Amino acid sequence: MNEQKQNIWIDTDLAVGKKRTHKPGYCDVDDGYAVLQLLKNDQITISGISTVFGNTSIENAYEIAADICDKYATYEIPYFKGAEAALDPQKVEHNEATLALAEKLKNNRLKILAIGPATNVAIVLLKNPELAKNIEEVVLVAGRRKPTDYFNIGSKGNRAPDLNFDLDNLAFEVMFQAGIPVTLCPFEISSKVWITDEDLQKLAKSDSANQWLANHSEAWLNQWLEQGAQGFNPFDVLASHYLIAPELIKSEMLSAKLELHLNDQIPENPNQQFKNYLLCGDEGLYKVKYCFDVADGYHQALIESLTK
């Protein structure tokens, strides 16, 4: 590990323990894994947490950020309420979170872990383009190689969206055009890592933060098991782990582009509805680091990073 601590800003749509609003069931829990993993690492300083809409409402995300920082952080971490909807090019305005991030960037170089829609990051880049030089890297959960690389959940035909990208395509374009270093941790890599009931039992025997996480992960795990999966893929924690231990994450430099293709979220798609895809390969205007696999023994390293 590096001797010097990394300064990380987390931008997240925390949803741990919240019920879905658009359909029955519970929201994703993996953002909680990512935040707690960084909290536990002594080579990381979390400079701030900004919340954003996404897996849940901005109010829920902010509430969870407050709980985590107040109950489980060993040092003071400021947290802020950010964008409640996708970027509107006709009305780009700062919010509490983007003002705080911009102020931090004025005198500090930061890496940003953006594990929700990238709306807050895009607002800062549009309102304060001079601050782009102080963003060392933005690490996001998004992208795929081909439009037919579906995000399959279990064995019963359920597909997940490329949610962070789907909810705000324009925010990604803003980041690419700003020329900041972008690292993508897509479904391709997270689909190779599983959290099972055995893992939750280990977390439940650990500290209070992990007990909270394990308790709220049970309903999420059951939803995946009902879809025929062997566990659940902890999407966001692959991105946080890349920041902690990049040697455990296999990556390559690719070119990225946005293209319209048939919407893979619509079964059969009789009306031929389309959507934007973030595609990474040999062709494209924007260079990205694309994470695609994990090193041998990764699962044990992941659990140890949470339970140490």
Automatic annotation (TrEMBL):
List each copy of the Inosine/uridine-preferring nucleoside hydrolase domain by range.
25-261
Query: Which protein, by its recorded name, is this?
Result: Nucleoside hydrolase
Q: Which UniProt keywords apply?
A: Glycosidase, Hydrolase
Question: Which Pfam families does its entry note?
Answer: IU_nuc_hydro
Q: List the molecular function annotations (GO) for this entry.
A: purine nucleosidase activity
Tell me the InterPro entries matching this sequence.
Inosine/uridine_hydrolase_dom, IUNH, Ribo_hydro-like
Keyword Hydrolase annotated? yes
